[in-house]
Give the backbone structure.
Amino acid sequence: MQLAEALLQALHRAGAREIFGIPGDFALPLFEVIERFPELPLYTLSHEPAVGFAADAATRFRGGIGVAAITYGAGAFNLVNPVAGAYAERSPLVVLSGAPSRPERSSGLLVHHQARTLDSQLNVYREITCDQAVLDDPVTAPDAIARVLRSCHEHSQPVYIEVPRDMVGVDIGPVPELEPSRVDPDAVEAAAVEILARLEAARSPVMMVDAEVRRYGVEDKVADLAHRLGIPVVTTFMGRGLLADSPNPPMGTYIGMAGEPEITDLVESSDALFLLGVILSDTNFSVSLHKIDLRKTIVAAQREVRLGFHTYPDVPLEALVDAMAAQARPLGPRPELPAPPEPPYGMAADDSPVTPTDIATAVNDMMHKHGPLPMASDMGDCLFTAMDIDHHAIAAPGYYAGMGFGVPAGLGIQAATGERALVLVGDGAFQMTGWELGNCRRHGWDPIVIVFNNASWEILRAFQPDAKYTDLDDWPFHEMAGPLGGVGIHVRTRRELADALERAATTRGSFVLIDVALQRGHMSGTLSRYVEAFERRRSQEC
Ligand code: S1T
Ligand code: MG
């Protein structure tokens, strides 16, 4: 079978269901085959960062793998940041790059789109992917494709596949289906027994869940395990929205000094904190009220289990959860749990100016009336504001914190699930990738986009109040929506916000951009507590 055909079949078998991409001359032969492959519809966008963010969000919401196809050099280097974010946040993304042909590589001429050497691109991607393959040999290509796709699935991290343009039509053998990497069933069993014993013996055990629980598709199993054990569950900042649809959703999200005191106290006073699929990042743990001694926690992540000073290697998350579920029994009576904090509802639709927390309240009201929507958030106060939105599934860069994720992620969610997404994005981030909304009409997407327009890089202002460079101009995003094929609504008061969300919820067939005027210096409660906590922690360290 022709290499590109075999590659696309292997991608579909590995869980891909669409391809986001931007071609170039080195990728034309590959895109020609992609266009003829109906099982993987191709969605072209305007800038490579958006291609990466959309593919990442698609897999975060649907599962399986996401695919970003680009051209050599100029395209691939533009894609680096989203792939770095996917690597950090454990997202299984496949980077498919066209590349110079073998004769071009040996022509002795510098090749256009080449940086330092012809392998500079591969070297860069070695830093942000967990496995790589250059398909320049028809004999080794089938095994290389199979190995790289298994790595993508098992490590839930990006991988890199380079397709020289003269290899697209070369015949290769079938791509084998590899056995999963070896897992030691005794290690899994022993880890499950030790964890259950540790939780059983604890006065106040708590389970904290994060990204990997979604990535490995074990949300329902984890919710069931927690229910059977009778253990309270919280999410990390990065894990906000997990287990949202389960019969017993988490009590809340742990954000240390910036979070709800009931949740902070529950986590920080626990004598058996079980971190399941958790990324041990500063955004998840640096603002804790009382520093959490991670050595005293139980960590199950990255295919291993760590308890104190010993580690069980090669323990995939799903295998561990299954082994625990097989022996789980109620942990018995424990101290009374605090009532989970109530998210805000019932915004007063009056003529007062809008604050970030008003947006959260109004979104809760809209979803209460019209039903929940899958959410995407960019990096900005919009993400901190999302902590006040009732517990719904959300894709957001809660750890890598790269801007530009929001709007393309909303497009990726609709492409992958068919569901309309609600996007939260700051004006600064919208200036980076908001223009991708211009691709909605062509692809039939109609997200609702709320722009937190404070004409400012507000988070940076919060850390550097005297800076002038954090001031941005007030761009009239709402006026740009029409020409891009959407509906634009300018909001200055709470009444206008309520009306805009009602109109958006009842308008289908084109994107709706709600441009909310916010006053500089007015942050969400969560962000202001986060900044305060961060500053306090920094002054303590000094
Ligand atoms: N560039 C990229 C691609 N990602 C980043 N995270 C940054 C720069 C740094 C940065 C922040 S937050 C922020 C920047 C520039 C300002 C965001 O402005 P806006 O989207 O308007 O949101 P808001 O006004 O709510 O802050 C993080 C801390 O690194
Ligand atoms: Mg802003």
About this structure: The longest strand covers residues 93-99. The chain has a mean pLDDT of 95. The first helix runs from residue 3 to 13.
